[in-house]
Amino acid sequence: MMRFLLICALCLIAFGLAPARAEQITVFAAASLKTALDEITAGFIEETDYSVSLSYAGSSLLARQISQGAPANVFISANRAWMDWLEAQQALAPETRGEFIGNRLVLIAHGAEAAPLTLTRETLADRLGAARIATALVEAVPAGIYAKAALSHFELWDALSPQIVQTDNARTALALVAAGEAPFGIVYATDAQAEPRVSVLALFPPESHPVIRYPAALLEARASPAAQAFLNHLTTAPARQVFENQGFTLLRAAP
Prior knowledge:
Blueprint: H1 2-14, E1 24-30, H2 34-47, E2 51-57, H3 59-67, E3 74-76, H4 80-88, E4 98-102, E5 105-110, H5 121-128, E6 133-136, H6 142-153, H7 157-160, E7 164-167, H8 170-178, E8 184-188, H9 189-193, E9 198-203, E10 213-218, H10 225-233, H11 237-245, E11 249-250
Parallel strand pairs: 1-2, 1-3, 6-7, 6-8
Antiparallel strand pairs: 3-10, 4-10, 4-11, 5-8, 5-9
Helix pairs in contact: 2-11, 3-4
């Protein structure tokens, strides 16, 4: 009997009737999405038979890795420019690109009880003084690009640029301020909300920097029904609720 069962099992495998492994979905996402996307992905996995691998970093690094052939199915950028760059290389699956959430830019300080600040050129210069200011890479990573634009808006970039501590992504900048290694930082509002060891001093006005949007798309080389299902899940009501709870702004209605 045991020999018979073993033969049957081998036949099932040989003819492709054995249970298939869950399809793998690899998602490259901006580091600022980590807290929300971890929770959303856990819910997606519970509802489906898919396996999801999340890779977080600065949008610039992820886009370059994709252009070099990294095996990603889905890309979620923290700005339009890096998605435009990939689209120009025809790396995106046609008609899959969309924007579903936005963010705001904030000035943060180490400690949970720092006094808020009314933003003007003078008050910003006075509060920052000669202190170190952590942010992402100002010429490549979206959070850093937005930070440089905001300081330039207040005509303070030239004066403060020697004090800028540039990091690989927004979450690393946040970590420096949380640990007290930099007294101040410029990060996304959602980053600050996720870290109790920092205080938000001020919200930069929308006109001080480019609009913050998170475009998402499938990658042409690895587009699949599973990847499309994940992309669709990002705009469902449960996912939108998580994004909203984490401080993101919602850009379009759930299906």
